[in-house]
Amino acid sequence: MSTTSALSLTKISDALGSVNQGSTVSEVAERLLAHFTSGEIAPGTRLPAERQLASSLGVGRSAVREALAALEILGIVVVRPGSGTYLRDGISELLPRTLSWGMMLGAPRTRELVELRSGLEVQAVQLAASKIDDHTLARLAEHLDTMERNVGDFKVFIEADAAFHRDIAEASGNQVLHELLQSVRSLLRIWVDRALTDEAHATAAAKEHTKIYEALRAHDVKAVTVTMQAHMDTASRRLLTEFSASQ
Q1: What pLDDT shows up at residue 170?
Q2: Dihedral through CA 232, CA 234, CA 235, CA 239, nearest 10?
Q3: Which of 89, 91, 135, 146 is 20 to 30 A from 80 via CA?
Q4: What pLDDT is stored for residue 131 in this prediction?
Q5: Which CATH number fits domain 102-246: 1.10.443.10, 3.30.700.10, 3.40.50.1980, 1.20.120.530?
Q6: Beta strand ranges found along the chain (DSSP E)
Q7: The pLDDT value given to residue 138
Q8: CATH numeric code, 3-91
């Protein structure tokens, strides 16, 4: 590493300052996010190693690792295997500003995000009910098959679940709604990944998705509303239970 690079990494670490002991991952992510989007670091800059960031913030490496993973999902940083973690080029102006409003920070905002997601998912499926085509229905059937075959493989199940909802949002024909849902899902992704830890819950979720699919195939707006709302109610309870347990 060059002397200039070493000085840059040290400067980043020194500027962070420590957070309180026992801070949640969201608090660590908030501190990192605020510094990474402050304009003081040029896009493309390689960030200090996890150990160095953890030492600067006064927290464990696991908290830094999870915070960076969340920021990677949100498109703030990019991890290059064998090279390090870098501040992503061309960060959207909207996302950092949205995050700075506190949408990912603390229990009240997280609960509000969960409520928002539920409403948006219902609206998306209502719009999709009258517009969805056979090609999209076939994709949804594939996602369902993947979920049903992987109730014990939570990573695969969650990815198929997410794809199912993305395709519905796209089928809504409302690009703003689609993109807004994507942003909300990204903000909640770290908790969604943790919320599913039981095969019984995965099996139940797969059945809920099947009911949504059947209502969409029938182009039944009333049925898709009821089935999606029921699914979001149970999914939201699981997510908030996991979130509360982590605080």
Answers
A1: 94
A2: 130
A3: 146
A4: 96
A5: 1.20.120.530
A6: 77-80, 84-87
A7: 97
A8: 1.10.10.10
> Which residue type is seen at 153?
D
Weakly modelled stretches of the chain, pLDDT under 70:
1-24, 37-39, 74, 90-107, 246-247
DSSP state of 45: P
Q: Determine the pLDDT at residue 102.
A: 42
In the chain, residues under CATH classification 1.20.120.530 are: 102-246
- Give the Cα separation of 72 and 87 in Å (integer): 9
Q: What letter represents residue 107's amino acid? A: A
Strands in 32-83 per DSSP E: 77-80
Q: Which residues contact 206 (CB under 8 A, 6 or more apart)?
A: 144, 147, 148, 151, 157
Q: How many residues does the chain have?
A: 247
Residues of the chain with CATH 1.10.10.10: 3-91
Distance CA 237, CA 240 (A): 5
**Integer Cα distance of 126 and 175 in angstroms:** 15
50-61 as b/e: b if 16+ CB within 10 A? bebbbbbbebee
